[in-house]
Amino acid sequence: MIRVVILGSGNVAQHLYTGFLDQKHAKVIQCYNRKRLLFHPAQEENSITDDIGSLKEADIYILAVSDNAITPLSAQLPFKNKLVVHTSGSVPMKALCNLNKRGVFYPLQTFSRDKNIDFDSVPICIEAEEEKDVHLLKDLATPLSSKIYEISSDQRNILHVSAVFVNNFTNHLFSIGNDICKEHNIPFEILYPLIQETAQKVIQMNPDQAQTGPAIRKDTKTIERHLNILSDPLQKEIYQTLTKAIQSKYGKKL
Amino acid sequence: MIRVVILGSGNVAQHLYTGFLDQKHAKVIQCYNRKRLLFHPAQEENSITDDIGSLKEADIYILAVSDNAITPLSAQLPFKNKLVVHTSGSVPMKALCNLNKRGVFYPLQTFSRDKNIDFDSVPICIEAEEEKDVHLLKDLATPLSSKIYEISSDQRNILHVSAVFVNNFTNHLFSIGNDICKEHNIPFEILYPLIQETAQKVIQMNPDQAQTGPAIRKDTKTIERHLNILSDPLQKEIYQTLTKAIQSKYGKKL
Ligand SMILES: NC(=O)c1ccc[n+]([C@@H]2O[C@H](COP(=O)([O-])OP(=O)(O)OC[C@H]3O[C@@H](n4cnc5c(N)ncnc54)[C@H](OP(=O)(O)O)[C@@H]3O)[C@@H](O)[C@H]2O)c1
Ligand SMILES: NC(=O)c1ccc[n+]([C@@H]2O[C@H](COP(=O)([O-])OP(=O)(O)OC[C@H]3O[C@@H](n4cnc5c(N)ncnc54)[C@H](OP(=O)(O)O)[C@@H]3O)[C@@H](O)[C@H]2O)c1
């Protein structure tokens, strides 16, 4: 059985804790966080600590803390030569203090406090300095998820910037759609099926083939009418920038 | 039984034809298109025409043709005082020739030739000049979809610009994610679960609450690293514009 210590009490720490709860192959033997927060009613009081000095002996220490806390916290750990991993998409593995064996256990998903995640479909990107630690991380990930990828720090960086486009920026487009509907007293939920289908399509066809709309059609009249509807200058700018990008990308093919 | 004639042979015409195929309450008695295209093997040859002069007597004529063909085609119809509707999100109802009774039957979804759609979840936005035609369109839509909305031309315009953000522009962000991954030999499919979850979240929480990422965190270091990774100037511009918009929208709350 793989003994795990989770450090941090944010979204990722909580979801990881819950993910490991039903597993036989691994056990979270201790949690460290500054507020001594419990993740689950069944969690034993003495398995939580706010004292970095009293961390228990374990096989893997998972630092699920804010990106900028990874380096300082890893340097505070009171032991050497243990496997210490972080969960960040953008921090290099080598940002961890080199007194321990370093690795990454990056769940490529968007976690929120109040929304459960089916871990089985969460891609887990792993990296470690030593081959046997790669195996240990794979062993840890296998019963949790059916999608495990060995990914270098450089590749993880690329994935992270792509994730910003398909998640953070996409969500902002949803928030603009929501604002426009609200401003005109139209229920935003009318657009839910379209949003779901847009996301479904990407699995079945290349997004270049799925591209439709006034921009790719060079439908100048509609584009102008849309720009007149938008009252917010930033919404206008996003509309223009994305329209220009779509026309530039597919211009040659039209 | 409601007798329907469908004009046009594009994505919407084909999906509508298929949607009505299993219905008892309505029957597509004829299809008009310039290429005499068949939509289905069971379709009878003599129910297809390319001659606008020989349209059959029906209760509803659906013009599922390109936006800019709606006005001229509606003016060519060889009859008067019949209910004629178009299927466009952005064309006003009054763009139809006023010799007939006018209406709109707008399925708010993204249709592609090779992808089936479950019509039951497609919101149908209807509009008509006369109350009894609104009822007829509702009768036509009811067995097809569980989401029917009476929407004015002005509201439809608003929905359409929102749809451009949540569908066309979102799809372009997916295509950028795909390009970035391809450029660096990383399988884009690693991002599919994140894309699905992003779209799922919007149903369960307000997109403003779901916003995460370096922009809202004002994580300047990560933003800079990402901009350095992007080689395409248009990708850079989109990254900067959306980052600025997110920071401006949530700036006060941070
Ligand atoms: N959220 C996601 O969707 C997601 C997805 C994949 C990966 N990640 C990565 O996972 C890591 C954690 O993200 P998160 O979303 O869980 O963050 P979060 O919800 O903001 O929580 C951050 C946690 O870090 C702790 N922390 C911050 N500074 C610390 C320090 N100096 N010493 C000890 N603990 C400290 C915080 O503790 P206090 O409460 O005591 O301040 C808190 O428990 C990050 O590297 C992030 O990039 C996040
Ligand atoms: N695609 C979508 O996702 C979607 C969703 C909701 C609503 N709509 C709306 O539905 C309508 C049709 O869209 P679509 O995607 O089905 O278009 P499409 O696939 O591009 O097909 C356009 C059709 O219009 C016909 N057409 C063009 N000019 C014509 C004319 N002067 N006379 C007769 N037929 C003419 C074309 O016939 P030929 O093949 O003979 O040229 C073709 O059958 C548009 O108003 C669109 O805005 C589309």
TrEMBL record, chains A, B:
Residues 3-87 form the Pyrroline-5-carboxylate reductase catalytic N-terminal domain. Pfam families: DUF2520, F420_oxidored. Residues 122-245 form the DUF2520 domain. It comes from the Bacteria. InterPro entries: 6-PGluconate_DH-like_C_sf (IPR008927), DUF2520 (IPR018931), NAD(P)-bd_dom_sf (IPR036291), P5C_Rdtase_cat_N (IPR028939), TM1727-like_C_sf (IPR037108). This is Rossmann-like and DUF2520 domain-containing protein. It comes from Aquimarina celericrescens.
